[in-house]
């Protein structure tokens, strides 16, 4: 039986928010604790972050520690997984260079995520000015290939990511198949693992916009204080048609309910019954379905569901916040985790790179290979002079 190996990661371009948490981080912690995997590699993708932040390396550098703090406080355990920094594993760039020969420009241009990101960053079709913002940096354009190197270097079988990463995994699988068919069975084809709960696939922003993003200012961060979370929940988008408490309300597209779908657990109804008790009305709920039913009927106010959501969020976020505070006081430990993780990652990636070079027959100076090579090439010359 082959080993089961996970590789996944994030670009260090900002602190992680609750969308990252329900979309990937929570799952990673579960997978880590399931004992179902032989090795787990979690990568802070600083080199990938630099592909569209070449002029802002300081931002990437600062956010490496933010992401590491978020990881550890959310429950990733360095005893059970290797947390490492991409740029410290130079084998990844070498693999990328060889894989580049197996992918066409046209294929990259069709990658939907790359296409969309090029649009989003305003890189499209302005190649005349040699300015950073005009035109697509080649490194950015080719990052799906480098992502294939990230995954295959660890012979990962499972890549838990959000659905926006699906085209990347598909492209990786193509590269693996191409490599293996040209050079012989060497690399492992990975499977994507998507979030299992629809609400977690893409958590909307607090304003109801499709995506949480720093630039839109609609994020709740893992590192936010309890007061910040409370204020953000209070200002959240609900159903604009739900004007009076007595009006029937819509649950679909109502961000408070989407967040509840992502965070609420059955025990929260026993833990926070007081949220549904006020002078004007009180309810006793035992499940989210009952809350939704009442909201649809009318009579359940936004204040109540927001209070409940705040408690539910805090129940998850408080332990994370507390662990983060402790870790912030112990940065040498956090950097040590990253250094050791990077060392472990280098060892595995070096082994794969050596397999790759052997398969491509560019391992000239490996033990035993040079003798063979000299013999083979000498025979050619002997043949040439003999045939005179
Ligand atoms: N592209 C991912 C992101 O935007 C980060 C990443 C880089 C990654 N390499 C990876 C994810 C390999 C999974 C596997 O967050």
Count of DSSP helices? 17
**What are the low-pLDDT stretches, counting only 5+ consecutive residues below 50?**
none
Largest β-sheet summary: 3 strands, parallel
Strand order, largest beta sheet = 1-2-3
CATH architecture classification name of the largest domain = 3-Layer(aba) Sandwich
Describe the protein:
This protein is mainly alpha-helical and 388 residues long. The protein has two domains: 5-203 and 330-360, Rossmann fold; 226-324, Orthogonal Bundle (Tyrosyl-Transfer RNA Synthetase), CATH 1.10.240. 53% of the residues lie in helices and 6% in strands. The protein is built from 17 helices and five strands. The strands form two sheets. It has a three-stranded parallel sheet with strand order 1-2-3. A two-stranded parallel sheet has the order 4-5. Strand 4, helix 9 and strand 5 form a beta-alpha-beta unit. Helix 8 (143-153) crosses helix 9 (166-183). The longest helix is centred in the last third of the chain and has 29 residues, at 331-359. The protein is elongated, with a radius of gyration of 25 Å. The N and C termini lie far apart (56 Å). The structure holds tryptophan (TRP).
Keywords for this structure?
binds tryptophan; 17 helices; mainly alpha; 388 residues; 53% helix; Rossmann fold; 2 domains; Tyrosyl-Transfer RNA Synthetase; two-stranded parallel ribbon
In short:
Helices cover 53% and strands 6% of the residues.
